[in-house]
Amino acid sequence: MFEHLKEQPADKILALMSAYRADPRTDKIDLGVGVYKDASGNTPVMRAVKAAERRIVESQVTKAYTGLAGDPAFSDAMIGLVLGGAVERARVAAVATPGGTGAIRQALELIRMAAPEATVWLSDPTWPNHPSILKYLGMKSAAYRYFDGATGEVDFSGLMAALGGVAAGDAVLLHGCCHNPTGANLTAEQLAEVIALLKGKGAVPLVDIAYQGFGDGLEADAVATRAIASAFDNVLIAASCSKNFGVYRERTGILMAVARDEGEAKLTQGTLAYLNRQNYSFPPDHGARVVTEILTDPELRADWEAELEEVRLGMLGLREQLAGELARLTNSDRYGFLARHRGMFSRLGVGPEMVERLRAEHGIYMVGDSRMNIAGLNAETVPVLAEAIVAAEKG
Predict the structure, then answer these.
(1) Measuring CA to CA, which residue among 302, 329, 314 is closest to residue 385?
(2) Catalytic residue among 37, 107, 155, 243, which?
(3) Distance of alpha carbon 322 from alpha carbon 29, whole angstroms
(4) pTM of whole model > 0.70?
(5) Annotated catalytic residue 243
(6) Catalytic site includes residue 339
(7) Which of 210, 238, 288, 388 is catalytic?
């Protein structure tokens, strides 16, 4: 049987990681891998996470299964964090998932069950797993223009024109904050226009929020998701705890489904539990239990929020430093968008030839579309990157 298998396309980011590890240069810089790193290049365990884990180890008396939907306390805590009362709790169905990827997968599975003919619209560009999972599931998809590489900003007129093709019942994937891979977010005014357009079309939003707390703050980063959730009868929200809690390997995520009313929410809840059963039965619990402990304990939550704010401000500082260095070296503001972007990522807006020059000549690794992880920098490497960018521009 196995002889009939076909080679699958290599993951570009994993290939980039391998190339970086094989590079013998000691001054190389990794801006490719999508995990947070501190100034020392480490991905630390957060203080509150360590404290919560100690409590769990001391108090936990069983490793028995929770339920198909995961621990209800985790759902309640995450719904509070993300939605903050924007919709009635009774209207929200939710299941724990293996990371944000699992939440996206279950959301798409639910769409396929509920509306098999629906087209799922993705921003161009978007996180590569979005189109990959859609293709694997055999679902219809379409792209809407999102980013203008020349300006480093959202191409809003192109976005609105493309979304004019959305049909009733289609799903439109929106990034809740810190757009991956561009770092460019919709303004509040632009979001209001998108909501009005999608409501008029009868579309269902699917929000991917993986970086809450990395952009403008925990509450500010949830504003768009809450506005969307409160405006529609049906909304799907895939949330990840990997970044803002730093529990990457614990695979901690949640899928929320906002329903029209309590009765529809109960039906949706049963369907989500069924989908969990088909894919992995019971979701992983350790990371979810850690997150629940933090969010429900005032002392742990305060410490977590303080450390998360340190992380956020550190990345903003790196953005401002890089934009300032590039402004000084180029005597222009053409890279000013880097300071306006939010989250871990930005698209530099240069071609693959320049990306290759940065790798070959300067040991700087970023994804071929020029997406770079700002958290891969520190105060010492920012000037190195800026000088390399200017040198690579000159060829």
Answers:
(1) 329
(2) 243
(3) 14
(4) yes
(5) yes
(6) no
(7) 210
